[in-house]
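ok new one. same drill as before - structure tokens go in, u give me an amino acid for every spot. 80 of them this time. try not to just spam alanines like last time pls lmao
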């Protein structure tokens, strides 16, 4: 029998989604390297390919990050 969550429990869990997502992403990054594959990542405004032996290859320069505040809305080109 499944127990239903009350509103307070749901809110508590939702507050932790960013931390859970960050943890899952970090775990996937290391698991991929451990399997012998390379991963892409950003460092110092460049896109790099990181290899299991610790080396990296610069792919290209990228635009700086856009600061975003919670609740802020953006409209993209071509979007109605």
């Amino acid at each position: 029998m499944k127990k239903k969550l009350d509103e307070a429990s749901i809110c508590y869990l939702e507050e932790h989604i960013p931390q859970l997502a960050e943890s899952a992403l970090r775990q996937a990054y290391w698991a991929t390297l451990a399997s012998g594959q390379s991963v892409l990542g950003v460092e110092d405004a460049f896109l790099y390919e990181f290899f299991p032996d610790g080396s990296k290859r610069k792919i290209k320069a990228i635009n700086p990050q856009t600061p975003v505040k919670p609740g802020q809305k953006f409209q993209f080109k071509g979007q109605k």
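The two ends are 45 Å apart (CA to CA). and btw The first helix runs from residue 7 to 15.
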